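User: For documentation purposes, I need each entry recorded in a consistent format: the amino acid sequence on its own, followed directly by the corresponding structure tokens. There are two entries in this batch. Please keep commentary to a minimum and don't merge the entries.

Assistant: Recorded as requested. Entry 1:
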Amino acid sequence: MATSGEQTERVGTVRWATFAGVCVLALLWSAYSVGAQNGTFLTQDFGAQYHLAKMTAHGAIPLVDFEHGWNAGSFWVSAVLYAAASGSPTIWYFLWGRLLGAGLGAVLAAAIGLRLRLHPAVMIAAALGVLLLATPLHIKYTICLLWVFVLLPTGWLESRPRLAAAARVLLPALVFWQYVELAVLLTGASGLFELFARREASWRTRIVNCVQLAGGFVLGLAVQAAAYKVLWGLSFADFNRQVILGQTETHEGSQYAVWNFFDLPTESGRFFILALYPFALLLPFVPLVWQRVSDSTRLIALAGLVLVVVPIRRVDNPHTTTVSALVLLAVVIAVAELYERRTSPAAGVRAPVIALPLAAAGALWAAATLWIGFGLQSMAGGVILVALAVAGAVLGAAFLRGTVAVVSAGALVVLGCVPALASVDHLDDMRRDAKSFQVTDAITRWAGPEYERCSAGTREALVMPNHLELYDTLDITNPTPYYLFHYDFAQYEDVLVPQLEDGSVPVIIETMPLHTPQPWLTDAIHTNYVPCSIVRIEKQATTVTIWTHKSRGSVERRDLSVRGGELVPTR
């Protein structure tokens, strides 16, 4: 695995075969993860993009939505996909969302592996991570992967200065036409890389590279302004209000989220993305890790870092997962590179007295970066997070030397506590929010007194077909050996029916209808028992019927409902 400069190792047949396999898997996943798009789809965000693609395909002027990053070129691409789909929203979403989203993202991850000559296993891990865990929602967020693939400081591009310069100019210009937000963020990430992360290159070269990146962004803006003027007669003042001034005004007074590590949303099975994101985001910037990873990994990590503004502004699974592809990719490659360099001599610690304060300093850096960056309710939070992460990585790797391992250990302890404590808190939330015993508790509270009245003191009763906790909460025992009324319960008919007939089961507490009809059982109950009490618990949508055997004599029959916290006769 080369770090930077010209690659000397051949790609090889195994890597090409791995890449081909990823392409096939991405296509299959993209197709089989799409459902038929219905009217609900057409009223949501994706539906809005579909209709705007349709309008653009029919000749409407492509709008510019600076707030969400959409730009003129993106609507032209969507219009082409609309035409290719013959107007079908399902096929359009397959192309625009799945195939050119997560599918292309996995392919680009594997392609980055080819350029870096990663081990096939690492290529597969990165591709599957992007496909199944990060899962870019649509074509917009695969631009991030395409950006780093093109600008990786290694291989054939770096050996051709003119071609590299053209890429640094044209890529920001093209991305600006597609997505303004990503053009701003990724141009900034590449500028940070040139100034603070690239090794070996002279300062003159780095500054020239930054100028080329900025020039490409300005070129995209200028060409688009000219196009609107020539094609649609839109003045530059109107264009400026549309693209920049008018759109950025929509951010005034907007609410920026606070990323509460220990109170994250729990409604989704992909909660772990939210728990791991802060840890994974900063892991490559721990000084020891930053010191040992390649320039290519540094670029990927920086590109992922600046995208943190997206999930910080809106803390949820879709926004976090869709921008976490680069974060995940950086972590996978960093771990692979650290493993490759595992035989390198470890940095020593000068003295135990120095070790603890240095570890505390590393912990303080990590804690401050997390707390301020994710906790400040302002766009400044994202800016400070990036600044602290880059400063800690660059300065720590440059000046710590023999103590870098101790400082990094302190930082890793803090970073590791985030997903660990967040997961514990998540489980506690689930424990408190669990609904599993609420129905049983309600039955015990409202039907318990009715059981006491109907049972006349007997502690033997059969609970059917569920809520077996009632045996404990009502302090009763089951006079039969049967508890689970499963689909083949009829095999016990010859044993249970005689018990129901002779009164061996004095009381039956029916908590819900049988999952699988058992006519022989219900017939035996209706023949030999009378409903002493019916308790309707409306809040839990549960009706409890307490049956007593006819041999126990006549009983007062009651039909009750729980309303307003009281047990009242059902009307």
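Entry 2:
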Amino acid sequence: MRDQEAAADDQDDDPKQAEPEWRPPARIRPKVAERPRQRVDLKALFGLASGGWAWTTAVKATAAMGLSFTCAALLLDPSTGALAALGSMTVLYEKNTPYVHRAVALALVGLGFVLSVALGSLASLTPWTAAVAIGLVAGVATWICQALRVDKPGALFFVLVCAISTIVPGGVAMVPTHAGVAAIGAGIGWLVSMTGAPFRSRHPEHRAVADAFRQLAALLRAIGTPKLDHVQHDASLAVAEAWRLVLLAQTRGYRDTPAAARLRALLRWVSDIHLAATEVSMARTEPLPAVAADFAEGLAAAVGKPELCPDPARLDEVRKGLRPRSLESRLYSHLARAAPTARKRDHEINGRGGVLYDTRYPSIADSLRSALSRDSLVRPTTLRMGITVAAAGLLGIALGADRFYWISITATAVLQGGNVVLTVNRSTQRALGTALGVFIGAGLLMLEPPLPVVIAAAAVFQGLTQLVVGRNFFYASILMTPMALLLAHTAAPYPVEQLAESRVIDTVIGSAAGMLGAVLLWRKASASRLPQTIIEVLDDARTVVTEVLDPDVRISPERRYRLRRDLRADLLSLRGVYDSAVGDVPRARTTQPLWPVVIATQRTGYLALSALALEDPPPAAHITLQRVDLAFRELRAAMQEERAPHLGALPRLVDYPRINMELRALSSSMRTAVAEDERGAEKERQLRAQREQRRAREESDADL
């Protein structure tokens, strides 16, 4: 398909005529995607999310629990064997990270499990201390997991391990034994998780880079469609995840190998193709030829199998008639130039991608400290989790619940939804799933199965839970409940009928407690953080644009890398904060009008990234540079002061017309959002006045 600028060339038949200087045209702005909607409905409760089934995780979870439960039961006794089975859940963490990082991270997770068991055993003297200890573990585990970016299941299994340890017989005298048994289970989980290291040592990094190429293919297919903005965000997430995992693998010795250099080079191409595709997506309102997305899919396959690399000649047909400096031509050029790198199994160490200008990861102390800052969402999430889980357990004790810890566990699972809407969905799924799962678990226990059958059943239910949990929490709850009942009954035998009845009641109470915690505690944290997140993106975009346009500034490769990294991180944070804020009720009514502002800010940031990726970006005059800087500062001030911006006339950026377009769109959307806020506030004042008048009339009628 020919680019739109080439149409003008068809009018000039004289080959001797000098070709005019190319200027990218200001095209029609792509339509804004429909804002994300989070609802409590049948599809959200019972529908399957997109994605595949987690077969590998399911098999590993089954093996880890079966082995650990069997070993501890044979060495000690079945009740302590349940703790080993819980300790084996280390296998559920760090499933996608490089093995060199996973080895250390899982050891720390196992240590966390051991400490949770020790604290639970020490706190088992009274139910009250046990409830507080479970809440403390929930809060601390949430803080550490979110600060260190530990993926799901997050704090849930730390709480489960602590809760079950409070009922295992033995008391304080058995704390060392209980902790040791949990360590055995954690060690077995570590071994099972690391089984692929000798055979496919670089598989996690290969998969991350391949997934990034696949998301880029999806982005190329989404150009010219209404879902562009959402797919753009998904592609950015995949690119950022690929960067993170490749960085985590950069250990001494590994980073100096040709295979590691190839991965870094492919990662560079992923970033360049992403930014080129971004600029094309902002300039087109019609789809790209399908061959471009198919070529990106071929590059994804070639990451792990170089022999599957597509031939760059496949792009020759779509490149015909395009100007060499056109946006589409640059995109196709990046795709074609990535093929030689993907085709080779090794890459020169000092070549393209030899240096990433970054450390593997920030220090643990810095990550934990920044997570507690006033601007971080981790702090309110941590406090909400810890307070709610402790209060739920204490409420259960006050109500006379024998198994109060199930209330705490349920509240933890429910609160992992994040915002109010997702929490309501998860609480409903948890309650309904548990009610069905109790029948299965109670039925098995009533048959009084021998220990080998209990071990096998618990392991199978654990594996099935991990198979479906990524697709729907309701079905996972059905399968997780029998596993939890089998472990709890083995750790502390209890009449089956009473166990089943209390499990259902405790789940309902825990679900209600989780919903109350989500509604009452820091419900507006995400919505309150959203304006500041928009400001941070504008600040970073202003820095990038002014440095790119300034003819007196030379951006070094390291500086370019860090600018790109920081702006991309803020863009991902922006969408994450908005997606969380829009699920808050009733705060969502004031968040929804900001969707066009979020999209315009997001597009401005991506256009700044695209300009930063140019090898020789055209500079601007100093007066133009100053006016652009003033425009960004005015938009920032308007967002901070919650007023309409007074932007005035923007300078004409001939070489970057889409930046002008998005800045105007951002100004317009901010004015609209302010107007809607004012209308909403006026309506609220009118309703309040009507209520006061009605109350006054009622009081007057009562006096008469």
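Summary note for entry 2:
The radius of gyration is 29 Å.
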